[in-house]
Design brief:
about 160 residues; mainly alpha; Four Helix Bundle (Hemerythrin (Met), subunit A); three-stranded mixed beta sheet
Amino acid sequence: MPVFTPEKAMLYISKTPVIVDTLLAGVDQARAANARTAPAEWSVLEIMAHLHDYESIFKERTNIILKEERGAFPAYDPDQLAVERQYNVQDFRMVCLSWKTARKVNLSNLESLLPESWTRTGMHPSFGEMTLLDLWLNVALHDLNHSEQIIRSLAATA
């Protein structure tokens, strides 16, 4: 029996909204915009805006994998997106709500896939070939990384 399965990937990524809700309980717009580990690091608001944008990017990459044979993923620069989209002045509550809604949609779409869909591949600009399962397990790790970053940012401004 494989260690990593589509069911496990979906379980892991379904937990992040619960974790983030708990971490952000009582955090308002001002704290979200100012809580960061260092002046040059992202604030909690910027982290959440990044998660929001990347949820769409993960959906886009999923669609490429499902529609193309070894389709190439567009490259994105997270820091450039943060500046271009003015992450730190976005509405904190709306960003969080929109991200959670997008995650639910992605989970619903993933739940409807046939088992063979999970082995289809796409080409990541940095990591090379990855299966759909690889992509969504990477999303779980991406979520974990940013959840820890939120914890450190809030602790630094407590």
